[in-house]
Design a protein that fits this description.
Elements: E1 8-14, E2 24-25, E3 29-30, E4 38-50, E5 54-62, E6 68-70, E7 76-77, E8 85-86, E9 95-100, E10 123-131, E11 138-149
Length: 155
């Protein structure tokens, strides 16, 4: 087996807790903040019990320092056959994954203030847009997995 742990970092993206009954934006993840920056980012999502409502998961990024936009299709990865929509028909314990391939406009960002970090700060987050006026909603959690670091994480 090869050492995978020291090639990756993990950051909370959609923190577990209360039932989600309205749209929620996950924690902003700075892909330049850990290990001098990372050339890879994906989100791993776990679905708990969902009783009502329709939860549409999207990945957003920020290229101007203030405005969040859905990641354009050429820069978003999803496995073949995987849906980004979660409903009461989704089995509890279902795991989903979404890959982020960057943004061509990232060069317009201000330089990062992080020592040793790449010249531009890149923020990404996962958003759960809820429709259908759910009463009890559902549990959904996610983590961002960062890889291909410029500096390997400490062992």
């Amino acid at each position: 087996m090869q050492d995978l742990m020291n090639e990756l970092s993990v950051a909370a993206a959609l923190v577990p807790g209360a039932l989600i009954t309205a749209t929620v934006h996950g924690t902003a993840v700075d892909v330049t903040a850990l290990n001098g920056g990372n050339n890879g980012c994906m989100f791993a999502v776990e679905v708990g019990t969902v009783t009502d409502g329709t939860h549409t998961l999207t990945i957003e990024d920020q290229v101007d320092g203030s405005t969040w936009n859905a990641v354009a299709a050429p820069y978003l990865q999803t496995p073949s056959g995987q849906s980004n929509v979660v409903t009461s028909a989704t089995t509890s314990g279902t795991c989903l994954k979404f890959g982020y391939l960057g943004n061509p406009a990232v060069a317009t960002l201000a330089p990062s203030s992080l020592s040793g970090a790449p010249a531009h700060k890149v923020l990404v987050r996962i958003t759960d847009t809820v429709t259908g006026s759910p009463v009890t909603g559902g549990y959904i959690t996610a983590v961002a997995i960062l890889g291909y670091p410029f500096n390997k994480p400490a062992a």
